[in-house]
């Protein structure tokens, strides 16, 4: 639980920056619904007019720490001439920055906060972790929700299609459900798109079940008409299978790939992973 923004914190803020308007008093205890507004007049600039900033302090400790630093900053008395027009043209601080500091604008966790979509389990949202053609293995960092670099592949192979996960799903390996999305273009890691399940590739990775949903982008005109994996060219399926059979060999890790299964099995797998996730959330609430 972060410490409340009380009088002692306000005193520290005032001591660090004597320009803080001391006529304002802080709330004794900030709850999640309360915040504190401080009016901070900065040092006069070249135009002899004071810069004014409205600082919104929430009950987040990290935000408080950042705002203390912001409040202790001073504006140079002599600013370069080339910046005068820029500073006079940009919007006021409370419109330009304060909105991004509110609790409602905190970045969402892609696994838990992104909805799977109203048409799931047939058509669902998925978050891309690895771009088509990439040799870098990116993956979701479960703690922060950011996409991190896991490793560079040890073999001379690249991902044949965009690869990611389905939000609000859970599998036996305690990860969200994996999905390989076939489409025309590579997608940047961290973006999400609508995918349509057309099949599933059963896979065992180092003794653990690690099935991959095979899908097409539901908004790609070249692929959205596919409804089942058997409609794909056989060579396309051979490429996908060979990639997953080989991409960990130089790491001395065993991967076994079974025969592709049709669309109804893929939809069943998505539905099952949605149920597992829901059960996990309910169990967490009970605790």
TrEMBL record:
PROSITE patterns to which the protein is assigned, alphabetical: PPASE
Any matching Pfam family: Pyrophosphatase
UniProt entry keywords in alphabetical sequence: Hydrolase, Magnesium, Metal-binding
Catalytic activity: diphosphate + H2O = 2 phosphate + H(+)
BP-aspect Gene Ontology terms: phosphate-containing compound metabolic process
Residues making up the signal peptide according to the UniProt record: none
Cofactor(s) in the UniProt record: Mg(2+)
Bias (Polar residues) ranges: 8-27
A cellular component annotation (GO) from this entry: cytoplasm
Protein name, as recorded: inorganic diphosphatase
Organism in which the protein naturally occurs: Lactuca virosa
InterPro entries found in the cross-reference section: Pyrophosphatase (IPR008162), Pyrophosphatase_sf (IPR036649)
Chain spans, region Disordered: 1-27
């Amino acid at each position: 639980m972060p410490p409340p923004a009380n009088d002692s914190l306000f005193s520290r803020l005032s001591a660090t920056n004597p320009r803080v308007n001391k006529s304002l008093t802080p709330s004794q205890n900030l709850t999640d619904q309360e915040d504190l507004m401080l009016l901070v007049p900065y040092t006069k600039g070249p135009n002899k007019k004071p810069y004014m900033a409205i600082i919104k302090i929430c009950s987040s400790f990290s935000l408080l720490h950042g705002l203390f630093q912001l409040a202790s900053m001073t504006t140079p008395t002599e600013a370069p001439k080339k910046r005068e027009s820029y500073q006079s043209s940009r919007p006021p601080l409370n419109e330009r920055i304060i909105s991004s500091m509110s609790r409602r604008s905190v970045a969402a966790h892609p696994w838990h906060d992104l909805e799977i979509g109203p048409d799931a389990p047939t058509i669902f949202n998925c978050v891309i972790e690895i771009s088509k053609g990439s040799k870098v293995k990116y993956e979701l960092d479960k703690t922060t929700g950011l996409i991190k670099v896991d490793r560079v592949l040890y073999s001379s192979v690249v991902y044949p299609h965009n690869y990611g996960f389905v939000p609000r799903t859970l599998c036996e390996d305690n990860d969200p459900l994996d999905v390989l999305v076939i489409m025309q273009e590579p997608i940047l890691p961290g973006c999400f798109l609508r995918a349509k399940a057309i099949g599933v590739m059963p896979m065992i990775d180092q003794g653990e079940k690690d099935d991959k949903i095979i899908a097409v982008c539901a908004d790609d005109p070249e692929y959205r008409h596919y409804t089942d994996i058997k409609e794909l060219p056989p060579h396309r399926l051979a490429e996908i299978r060979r990639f997953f059979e080989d991409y960990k060999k130089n790491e001395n890790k065993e991967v076994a790939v079974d025969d592709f299964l049709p669309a109804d099995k893929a939809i069943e797998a998505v539905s099952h992973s949605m149920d597992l996730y829901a059960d996990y959330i309910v169990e967490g609430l009970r605790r």
